[in-house]
Specification:
Oligomer: single chain
Helix content: 40-55%
Strand order of the largest sheet: 1-2
Structural class: mainly alpha
Order of helices and strands: HHHHHHEE
Distance between the termini: 34 Å
Radius of gyration: 16 Å
Length: about 130
């Protein structure tokens, strides 16, 4: 049975998730751009670098796997809303709401087996679609 646009097949939703999150490689870190940094880092490069650092975190009291998940996911919403910096003048509550909406949109593309969180979690500043 063919899926309608209103009810895409799980494979279509997963592909949309991958394509959307893949846009992080095209989103430049706004703070770098605002400060005139030549060849600014992308959001994807930032997430990758943080993840590598987390993999080698020497603190044995931290759950390294959880830390890696957070690093991979913490800026995924920026694939939809872009990298919002304080200089843009967007109120914190608006930024948080938009990040939450984007994270919820991303989470909706994952089925229950992959999306361990029914709603986006928040760490106070950024909305995170990551497993509990």
């Amino acid at each position: 049975m063919a899926s309608s646009p209103a009810d895409p097949e799980p494979e279509d939703k997963l592909l949309r998730f991958f394509l959307t999150v893949g846009e992080c490689k095209n989103v430049l870190r706004t703070g770098w751009v605002e400060n005139g940094v030549k060849d600014p880092e992308t959001v994807a490069a930032h997430m990758y670098r943080m993840t590598v650092l987390a993999m080698f975190c020497p603190d044995p009291t931290l759950d390294r796997n959880r830390l890696v998940q957070i690093c991979l996911c913490h800026d995924m919403a920026e694939s939809i809303i872009g990298d919002v910096s304080p200089r843009m003048g967007v109120p914190k509550e608006v930024k948080k709401r938009k990040e939450g909406e984007a994270a919820t949109e991303l989470c909706a593309l994952l089925d229950d087996d992959m999306n361990k969180a029914d709603t986006a979690k928040t760490d106070g500043d950024a909305t995170l679609p990551y497993p509990p």
